[in-house]
Each structure stands twice: as structure tokens, then as C-alpha cells.
Amino acid sequence: MPKVDKPKVLVVNDDANSLFALTSLLAQWSDQEGYDVIAARSGEEGLRQVLMHDFAVILLDVNMPGMDGFETAEAIHQRARSADIPIIFVTAFVADELDRLKAYQRGAVDFLFTPIIPQILHAKISVFVALAVKNEELKRQARQLSLRTTELTAANKKLTREIEERQVAERQNHAKDEFLAMLGHELRNPLSAISSAASLIALPGVQGDAVTRAKQIIQRQSRHLGRIVDDLLDLSRAMSGKILLNRAPLDLAALLATCLETYRTTGRSTGHTVTLEAEPGWVHGDATRLEQIFCNLMDNALKYTPPGGAITVFCETDGGEVLLSVEDSGVGIPASLLPHVFEVFVQGTRTLDRAQGGLGIGLALVRRLTELHGGSVTAHSAGANTGSNFTIRLPRCERPSETRQAMTDSIETGKPTVLLIEDNDDGREMMSMMLSCYGYEVRHAADGLQGLELAATFRPDLALVDIGLPGIDGYEVARRLRASDGTRGMKLIALTGYGLAEDQRRVLEAGFDMHLVKPVDIDHLMKAIGSCSATERQ
User: What is its main location (predicted)?
Assistant: First the structure.
């Protein structure tokens, strides 16, 4: 247990004999009552003791040279810490009413007249010592109560925080469970369509129109599967900060016009009235990622706007920013959902039988890609069936003085010879057939060593190399091709299922000219081959 200081009694008297008599008398009861006695020979010394100690009671002689008892009492009670110490005046004279009034005005609680009757002194001292003990106990209890209150407050805050964290975790787990169910649904739908279309093509006696229709279904659903995988991978990269932006000055209005034209020609906006109101707005951004941002907003508007509804796209400048807004007349956003629309796995409609699909990650990807560009995104809706508005704000940049020349999209003459190194038999066969249909002379190999042998004899202009090859991987294939005099100048394009910035860095360090992420769209592949060939001619 911590040591508890005893209450203290101060005796102030200038007469040595009187001081000794009083302190000796008080010392007789000190053990019994549990207090200590301190003596002072003058008012000044008494004040010094008050500065150093707390006292249960002070016995103060009235008639002292220099600072008398009244002055000493007044000085003691002027100090905040000692203002409440009870003072008993000791005097040899019978005090008249004026003296008593003066004493009480200086803070006295009582008088003792000499000669002092020991029993009376004992009784008075006992009362004040007991009061001091009680006061100290109350203070101790108050400190303990305050400490306990602080502990309980901290514990309550911790418990509240844990409850909130648990509720957030439960919501996230519930959202993830719903997301996994939705992912299974979204994957099974196109896979079922592809499987049915492939089975139809294999049936005997199938008409040509049916085969053509089945092929279109396979192509469309394959692209849909590719978009699902791309969204998942892009979200993972974006959340971990591993997306590498290829930024350059571009006119956002022109990009929006091109995207909307694609929506119209492919029929994705059929049934809706889509309007573009845009003025030139130059930003320093990645064209592919900005297109991805807009397409996600556009797809979201189409998903939640019934046929016959209107979608308006705005592009305007506002000081140092360029604003992109997508406004629809659709189902709107409930007030309870509005603060959470940019969170991962959040969707407005969670039924598995809805007409439009989606994984609930598009808007989360929009926010992250926008933030990577140094911008911000906000959502507004007045509630259910009132439509919604999504606004992107991006830092504005100056229009470049010279417009960059677009990269050559195709090669009109002198198509390059191509070597394809791919270990997946079906993928290798299909890509070879497609390249041949586009007029390219193609040789192919199933592993890295076979590919190196073909490269040495065939001497192609360009090689498409899968990274995940058996034996030696695509990185080693590229290094050996670059090390050989006969193949050092060959253009190399890497094909891989990984698209992180680190993968891109490793590909370029190994000697590749370009990096394509599977599945590779044929138009994208044609542009990549054309770009490499154009670079070679320059």
C-alpha cells in the first residue's frame, strides 16, 4: 500500500516557553490521534512552513513582534492552497467583540485563552484532525473515482470502436459473400452461352445462319468474360497502387466522342437517348484508363436506366479543372446507399435475375483510377426514380503546341513475318489461324527452345512470346534472342496473363519491345504489330 502522510498541526508562537509547552502537550496525543506537530517561532517562519506542508489546523499566537497573528492569518488565507486551513488564535488577553470580529475576518475559526485547559485543546485538535483525515479520504476517493471514470470511458470507447469495426467487418464479409455469388453467376452466364454455341456448331445439319449466329455469341460472350477478368485484375492493381499510368496531354472531349461512337456502332446504347455536350478540355492522363473510367460510368448509367431513358454526358472546364459528368434519368440512388456507391462490392440491385450484369466493382475502380490521375469523383441523386449524376474532376493542363501524330494502326504494305511461341495448344492454333487470315506469314512453336531454333532458321521480323513457357520462360527466350547476332534486331512482343507494373518492368528489361495482357483482342494485337513495324521503318 502507498504510504499515507499523517495530518500535521502547526504551532506558531514567539515565546519559546509557550511554544515548548504547547508542542509538548500536543505531542502527548499525537500517536493516539495520528498527527505530527511542527513548531514555528514567528509569523514569517509559520508562512514558510505553510508553503512546504499542508496542515489540519494552525495554533497561532495573536501577539507576536513583527508580523502579528492577524497579519499572519491574512497572509495564509490569501494563498489558494492554504485558504481553507482552520486557524485557532491563542491569546493571553480576553478578546472583546471587535477583536473577535477582526480575528474571524482574518479567517479564524476559534479562540483559545491562556492558560490553556488541556482537555479543551485536545477536543478541538481532535475535531480538526478528524476532519482533515476525512477530507483526505474524500480526495483520495475522488481521485480513484476520476481514474476509474477515465478507465471506464476509455474501455467504453474501445468497446464502441470494436463494435463498429465488427459491424464493418460483418458488412464487408456479407458484401464479399454476395460478390462471390454474383461472380459465380456472372461467369456461368457467358460460359453457358459459349458452351451452348460451341455444341450447336458441332451438330450435323446446322444451317449457316445458325453457325454465324453461334460464332457471334461466342465472340461477344468471350469479350464479356475478358471484361470481367480485366475489372478484377484492374481493381486489385489499383487498390495496391500497382497500376502504371502512361500519361500524355489529351483532349477529354475528343476521347468521350470516340467512346460514344463505339457505343453506338456496337449497339450498346440502343434503346437510350445519349447526348454529348462537350467543350475541349485538355488533361494530362492515360487515354486507356480515362476511357475505362468513362466506360464504367456509362455502363453504370445504361444498367440502371430503363429503355427509353436519357443519358447526357458533359465535358467542361472550371478554372484549373476539367469536369466530366454522366447524368441519367434512371432509377436513382437511395440516400442510404449514396455514401457507399464507390466502395468495393456495393451495388444498388443485388438480385441474381436482373437484366444487366455486373460485379459491383466498376465505381470503386472509377474512384481509384481518378485518384491516380490526381482527380476526384462525386455522386449525386435526389433519391429513388430521380436519376443520378456522377462527376469527375481532373486537373487541367495546357493544350500542347504540336499535336502528336497518331500511331500507325495498320500496315498497308510489307507485312512482317511472325513467330508465335505459345505452349497452350488451343491458344496457339487459334492465334496462328487469325494472323494467317489477316495475311501474315506465321510459324509457331510450343516451347522456348523450339522457338529459339525456329527463330534462328526462319528469321522472322517479329516474335509473339508467351512468358509462362515450359523449360525456359519467355524472359530467357528474349534474352537469348537479343544476345544472338542473327535475331538481335527482331521485334519482340510479350504475351502474359499478368499486367502489374512490375511485370511490365521485367518484360522491358528482358528485351521486349511491347507487353500485351491476355486475352488479347485481335484489333489490339493488330495495332501492336503495326506499331512495332512502324517503329522499325522509322
Answer: membrane
| DSSP one-letter string for 244-312 | ----EEEEHHHHHHHHHHHHHHHTTTTTSEEEEEE---EEEE-HHHHHHHHHHHHHHHHHTS-TT-EEE
Q: For the chain, how many residues are written?
A: 538
What gap in Å lies between CA 94 and CA 80, rounded to an integer?
Answer: 31
Across residues 43-60, what is the average pLDDT? 90
Q: Cis peptide before 519, with omega less than 30 degrees from 0?
A: yes
| Residue where the block lists cell 465505381 | 363
Is the pLDDT assigned to residue 518 strictly greater than 70? yes
Q: Which residue has the cell 440491385?
A: 349
Average pLDDT for residues 132-144, to the nearest whole number?
A: 87
418-537 fold:
Rossmann fold (3.40.50)
- Please spell the DSSP secondary structure of 315-372, one letter per residue: EEEETTEEEEEEEE-SS---TTTGGGTTSTT--S---TT-SS---S-HHHHHHHHHHH
Phi-psi region of 95 (alpha: psi -120 to 50; beta: other; left: phi over 0): beta
Task: Point out the least confidently predicted range of 97-111, 250-264, 395-409.
Answer: 395-409
Single-letter residue type at 423:
D
HEC-encoded secondary structure of 374-441: CCEEEEECCCCCCCEEEEEEEEECCCCCCCCCCCCCCCCCCCCCEEEECCCHHHHHHHHHHHHHCCCC
In the chain, the amino acid numbered 400 is P
User: Averaged over 254-263, what is the pLDDT?
Assistant: 89
The answer, yes or no, to whether residue 387 has pLDDT greater than 70, is yes
Beta bridge partners of 491: 462
- The fold adopted by the segment(s) 8-116 is Rossmann fold (3.40.50)
Instruction: Give me the residue spans of the domains in the chain.
Output: 8-116, 183-239, 248-395, 418-537
Which residues does 302 contact at the CB level (< 8 Å), separation at least 6?
268, 269, 272, 311, 356
- Close Cβ partners of 70 (under 8 Å, ≥ 6 residues apart): 62, 102, 103, 106
Q: How many helices (H) and strands (E) does the chain have?
A: 14, 17
Helix or strand (DSSP H, E) at 93: none
Q: Does residue 348 register a pLDDT over 80? A: no
Question: What pLDDT score does 410 carry?
Answer: 38
Phi-psi group of 205: left, alpha or beta (phi > 0 → left; psi -120 to 50 → alpha; rest → beta): left
Mean pLDDT of the region 262-282: 89
183-239 is a CATH 2.60.40 domain: no
Contacts of 50 (CB under 8 A, 6+ apart): 10, 58, 76, 79, 82, 85
Mean pLDDT of the chain: 83
Q: Angle at the Cα of 16 (from 12 to 19), degrees rounded to 5?
A: 40
pTM: 0.46
Is 418-537 the same fold as 8-116? yes
CATH of domain 248-395: 3.30.565.10
